[in-house]
Design a protein that fits this description.
Largest sheet: 5 strands, antiparallel
Structural class: mainly beta
Strand content: over 45%
Radius of gyration: 18 Å
Distance between the termini: 47 Å
Order of helices and strands: HEEEEEEEEEEE
Number of strands: 11
Number of helices: 1
Length: about 160
Amino acid sequence: MKIWNTLGFIAFVAILFTSCDSGRVFDDNKTIVNDAWYFKNTVPFEVQVTDTNALYNIYVNVRINSDYKYSNIFMWLNTTNPEKKTDQRRIEIRLADEGGKWLGNGLGDIYDYQFPVFQKIKFPNSGFYRFELEQNMRDDTLMNVKAVGVRLEKAVE
């Protein structure tokens, strides 16, 4: 009987946390196979934007393990709008401080980061936007990157 109470509580907390994220429009992470991100392997995300009057925040998500050998990660964020116009932005996400302490949210040896790329922007057109993440580090194959993702949320005005 106690196990059912525990499971019920866990389910309630999970529902509570997911329902509190009312600003989320899109939030998806994709696993990097074998934790090895080859520089030619772009990670794509398709996002449908319907409200062109709203302000949005765009974030890049990164998950690494503690064996990642750098204190940062550079990547390209390639964006294609519904009219097929493209934009490329190089971003740097700082993962550790000068002393080597990981800055992300950690559980065990896994660390999660959410980096703001755009704040309070408007999309000029409705339709599908394609975001692609591409690693841009010195290593052809960047080891110990577990997942990357994109989050789009409506900004609080």
